[in-house]
Write a structure and sequence with these properties.
Length: 229
């Protein structure tokens, strides 16, 4: 009996040790989220002289990107007035919007960035995530110069841009804070940081189908009107 008791105690201690080694549960951001008009905290960035002088060029670039239905990219897909759909599993977080044209944004876990010498840059860049407690820290590089390049507050996204985001649930999971920091010596005199707070959308929320007609002449005239230049 004594031997059995010792063996049982050993099993209990071993199980406790395995339990203690298991990583803590991480938050799950899955669901539809809405960014409302009063949910942004965006300060004015410190721009380089060249970046400050290029504001008209940025507006013209973005108007043409919208007119010709180029892939939207970051940060515009996170600045959507419609809902965003977040799906999370052990391998990645995917973010989908109804902006057209756009593709799902993928944030990969447990892998490094690819070799940027052979990576084909995209408007979304390449994102990898890691957990710091209950905060998802996302690192994104590998941007192209296509799509909507303007950054909230001012400045532009360039192939040299580096974006760090911190995703965190608030108010019992009913709010999602995303703090973004852009670093780019060609654009910012110092890192530019701002926060968006998303509200969990009500049940029944869906993404709307959208259509981007490049042959709509009236739409083209509106987007490329002189007041955009």
């Amino acid at each position: 009996m004594k031997g059995r008791a010792i063996a049982f105690a050993s099993l209990v201690l071993a199980a406790a040790g395995v339990q203690a080694q298991q990583p803590p549960a991480v938050p799950n951001f899955t669901g539809f989220w809405e960014l409302r008009f009063d949910s942004k905290s965006v300060p004015v960035p410190t721009l380089t002289r060249e970046a400050a002088a290029s504001s008209t060029e940025i507006r013209r670039h973005d108007a043409n990107a919208i007119r010709w239905c180029h892939m939207v990219g970051l940060p515009a897909i996170m600045d959507n007035w419609g809902p965003i759909d977040i799906v999370q599993n052990r391998a990645e977080v995917a973010i989908i919007t109804d902006l057209i044209p756009s593709v799902a944004r993928h944030i990969y876990f447990n892998q490094p960035h690819p070799d940027m010498n052979i990576f084909d840059p995209t408007p979304n860049g390449h994102s990898i995530g890691r957990w710091e407690g209950d905060t998802l820290v996302v690192d994104t590089i590998g941007f192209s110069d296509r799509g909507i390049i303007s950054i909230p507050g001012g400045g532009r996204r360039t192939p040299k841009s580096h974006l760090t985001e911190r995703f965190r649930l608030l108010q019992g999971g009913n709010r999602l804070s995303v703090v973004s920091t852009w670093e780019d010596a060609t654009t910012f005199g110092k890192p530019h940081t701002y926060e968006f707070i998303y509200v969990r959308a009500p049940k029944g929320t869906e993404l709307r189908e959208a259509y981007c007609p490049t042959d709509d002449e009236e739409r083209a005239k509106f987007l490329l009107a002189p007041w955009h230049r």
